[in-house]
Amino acid sequence: MTSMDGASPRGPLTLNLLLLGLLLALSLVSLRFGSAPLSLGEVVGGLLGTGPEEHRLIVQQIRLPRVALAWLVGLALGASGAALQGLLRNPLAEPGLLGISSSAGLGAVLVLYFGVTAISLWILPAAAMAFALVATLLLYALTRAGSNNLTLILAGVALSSLAGALTSLALNLAPDPGGVQDIVLWLLGSISDLSFEEVRLCLPFVLLGLGLLLMAAPALDVLSLGEAEAATLGVDLRRLRGLIIFGSALSVGATVAVTGTIGFVGLVVPHLLRRFVAYRPGRLLLASALGGALLVLAADIALRLLDTPRELMLGVVTALVGAPFFLGLVLRSRRDLL
Amino acid sequence: MSGLQRSPPGSQRWERRPGATGVRPRRGTAPTRLALVLALCAFSAQAALPTVVSTDLCSDFLLLQIAAPQQILSVSRQSQDPRVSPVAELARRYPANRGSVEDLLYLKPDIALVYSGWAAKRHAALLATEGTRLIAVPYPRDWSDTLGTTREIAAKIGRAEVGEAKAADAEQRMRVLAARARPYRMLYLRPNGGTAGQGTYVDDVIARLGLRNLAAEQGLSGWGRFPLERLVTAPPDVFLLGYFDRTRSKTGSAYGRHPLLRGLLERAPSIRIPGNAWGCGGLELVGAAEQIAAQLDRLTLGAMPARGD
Amino acid sequence: MSRLRIDRLAVRLGGKTRLRDLSLAVDAGELFGLIGPNGAGKSTLVKAAAQLLPYQGRIRLDGQDLAGLEAPERARRIAYLSQGDVVQWPITVEDLVALGRHPYRGSWWRGAGAPSAEDRAAVEAALQATDIAHLRQRKVTELSGGERARARLARVLAVQAPLILADEPVAALDPRHQLQVMRLLRQHCDRGGSLILVLHDLTLASRFCDRLLLLHQGERIALGAPAEVLTAESLRSVYGIRAVTGAHDGQGYVLPWACESPASGGA
Fold first, then answer.
1. What strand order describes the sheet that includes B270-273?
2. Which of residues 152-181 of C touch A (CB under 8 A)?
3. Contact state of A280 with C82 under an 8 Å Cβ cutoff
4. Do residues A199 and A68 lie in contact, with contact meaning Cβ atoms separated by under 8 Å?
5. In angstroms, rounded to a whole number, what is the distance separating the alpha carbons of residues C156 and C168?
6. β-strand partners of C7
7. How many domains does chain C have?
8. What values do phi and psi take at B198, rounded to 5?
9. Percentage helix, strand, coil, to 5, in chain B?
10. How would you label C194-227 residue by residue, b for 16+ Cβ within 10 Å and e otherwise?
11. Are A127 and A260 in contact (CB under 8 A)?
């Protein structure tokens, strides 16, 4: 028997089910930890609504949205990272490194700066997504012709610095120093003490973005052959690019609008999971989305378990894990870079 | 490190930073020029007082309270912005500066008031050769710090008597407030979840009002963040809301929007204090304390709020 | 009716004319070679036929205008092998070859489904034909150059398209693998398939191709049987070389031997 009808279709299914199982288990673990010392029984009671009112509030209104946001952020970052790597055919592509997240952050900061969220809160994710979209388009235009690691990373550096500079400019000109500090902290990325209102704010866009990305999966496999051969195999390149660029911008932009920028998830997760899907970029998408959620959830649990005087920011934790990882990747592909 | 990542110390410390705002220079409008001329005339008349420039919002507050008008050469531009400064009108009588070394070299005051983290302190020697003495205004940790700083700075700029009078008056007013016991647990909260634990002047003022600071009771120290979960397990009898008047903070901070907090705020009484009323921890603290006490006494005329429901 | 019919094809790219007024027809079962010096327009012609470039003129496959054909339909009827080695990820040989079945997949929601019996048979046949069945679980990036070239060719064969367009498929191979691949391509034509092939090796062109088109600066210099095209005169005027020619086992060979000053512009 060949692997085509054997391991391959079942392989990723097993992997995805395994990831999903771990994700559910870890979600329960995540519900268990917080600044209120609830026992497992009290957590379950709170979740089912059978316990005292305050347990119910804590579990359902504080810890549950937190778990939901960890899922959404991780799904968005994991899937976008894998999809961008497939599209640019480059394992170093990642929404954070490429400046997509910081551009989305800029959009959100501008909205907060001008205070237009008073009109409608939906302007916040809308602006973040629009800026993420512009960044992704720009990046694609910059790196499409002969995308090697060097041009890609340089384009990402340029884009991140631009977004960072414009964010600083907005903060510099802000009349309200207290608000500035809130924004600076928010940009570092956190999912603590958020409510289902924030979940609602990004859920539809993350789901829509994920849908677009997953639709691109089969064509992404074919793109391994290069754009020309993929086109002659019936892949509509414009549609493929559109799906991935819009999908990433929607999902990443919407989560950044709510949680700030959380980096490196989209880099680490696809890299770890690629071998389990026989290196096929299309199959990597769903696995990477689930793996991203798993990583964000784990990081969010870890920062609550760490005995620091104040809770660490989630974006800081993922960067502390992800940046050395990124360095390792760069070292390994050094020949390619030079 | 965690102090950096975690919740802000209230905007208070931030506001001490000069040059953080970007209002365009407004040098030499007619009234300010007139003021300058008047000041200089007055200066030549009673030459005893040293000239002073203050370079950040909090130093401005202090200077405008204790200095003689003729000795103020310039105040920071922030204090002229009514959005952040309660004394904008008064501050506009003087030329504005952006808190740079150049400003000081150009204005040549005898004394420059800067905040303790001022980046250009390394130029102190240079300024000294130009006849300008730098005085760092320390960040108060409690009410006695505030009084001490006021007296100390006043003495240094030759206004010891005024400083003493103002400090004594404020001290007396605060003592009056403290005479009454208010056995409630109060929680100071900003829209981003920021609160004030032990070792902050907010904690000290709360204690002087005869209240119990919930954040300190929960073991928080410094400017920290009060987790929402603790709000559920240990709700305060009364909230003290700072900066909730700012729409931007309100919409920008998910904590302040959280339905759980909204629900608690509907049930528990709350007192609001405008963002700039006590951001510097100067003598104006006593005014803020009086406001809090007045609102509190109005709130709790009836029975003591039953905690928990 | 000829399989591929090109009428008055012209391609301009970046303000430069790459191909000018070119007409030709390739029959079923024909191995058609494109030769000419670098920059002659060989790859351009192949890419235009694969609908990868904008062009003027008409290209018809079995009487149907290619430009009007839906992408999946076209993909099932024309297979294209690009120049150079471009597989990015270390996927397995079998997965690589199976990508040739992409044009037969349904819509995206069925795309993730298991391959059909025909798909499996086509992949298996391509693996066998290129003699790489034993490498099926190896990663593409770990293969030798010759193995990888055969794997990519197997991917093209798996499409089971009546027309294959191949841009220099033997350029990077050692002599043994060159001969192997040429024999494979010949077999494809012997079974009724058509093939347009870009080549630099004049002996391989002479031995294996049914007809040759000699291009120079985007224009047709000669078209016909190898012996008619590879004349001393055309080699001198187009390539600027003198060649040793002859025949062995009844097949002609052309051995470039010395440079000569070319006549400018071509015939």
1. B212-213, B185-189, B238-242, B270-273
2. 155, 159, 165
3. no
4. yes
5. 14
6. C58
7. 1
8. -60, 150
9. 50, 15, 35
10. bbbbbbebbbbbbbbbbbbbbbbbbbbbbbeebe
11. no
Q: Among A3, A233, A278, whose Cβ lies nearest the Cβ of C102?
A: A233
Does the predicted model carry a pTM greater than 0.90?
Answer: no
Decide: helix, strand or coil at residue C32: strand
Q: Is B10 left (phi over 0), alpha (psi -120 to 50) or beta?
A: left
Report the C-alpha gap between C157 and C134 in whole angstroms. 17
pLDDT tens digits, one per residue of B77-104 = 989 988 788 889 999 999 999 888 888 9
Both tokens assigned to A162: 């631009």
- Domain borders along chain B are 17-138, 180-299
A172 to B22: CB separation less than 8 angstroms, yes or no: yes
Contacts of A157 (CB under 8 A, 6+ apart): A99
The two three-digit tokens of residue A87, written as one number:
């599209």
Question: Is the CB of residue B278 less than 8 Å from the CB of residue B284?
Answer: yes
* Owner of token pair 């924004």: A183
Structure tokens at A69: 């946001």
Say if C136 falls within a structural domain.
yes
Residue C217 maps to which CATH number? 3.40.50.300
> Which class in CATH covers the domain with range B180-299?
alpha beta
Q: Are C40 and C237 in contact (CB under 8 A)?
A: no
Question: Structure tokens of B158?
Answer: 């030759």
State ipTM: 0.91
CATH class, A7-337 region: mainly alpha
pLDDT at A179: 66
- Record: contact A194-B258, CB cut-off 8 A: yes
Q: If you ran DSSP here, which 8-state letter would residue C116 be given?
A: P
With H, G, I as helix, E, B as strand and everything else as coil, classify residue B76: strand
Tell me if chain B has a CB within 8 Å of the CB of A173. yes
Long-range contacts of B161-165 (CB under 8 A, 24+ apart): B162/B66, B162/B68, B163/B66
CB contact under 8 A, B84 and A175: yes
Residues 6+ apart with CB under 8 A from A18: none
- Percent of chain C that is helix, strand, coil (3-state, to 5): 40, 30, 30
Q: What pLDDT, on the 0 to 100 scale, is given for residue B108?
A: 92
Burial A262-283 (b: 16+ CB within 10 A, else e): bbbbbbbbbbebbebbbbbbbb
Chains A & B: contacts with CB separation below 8 Å = 138
pLDDT tier, C115 (very low <50, low <70, confident <90, very high otherwise) = confident
Residue A280: pLDDT band (50, 70, 90) is very high
CA distance linking residue A177 with residue B216, whole number of Å: 25
User: Does residue A154 sit in helix, strand or coil?
Assistant: helix
Q: Is C13 within a domain? A: yes
Cβ-based neighbour number of residue A100 at 10 Å: 34
Residue C124: inside a domain: yes
Return the CATH architecture of domain B17-138.
3-Layer(aba) Sandwich (3.40)
Q: Residue C265: inside a domain, yes or no? A: no
Count of CB atoms within 10 A of residue B82's CB?
Answer: 14
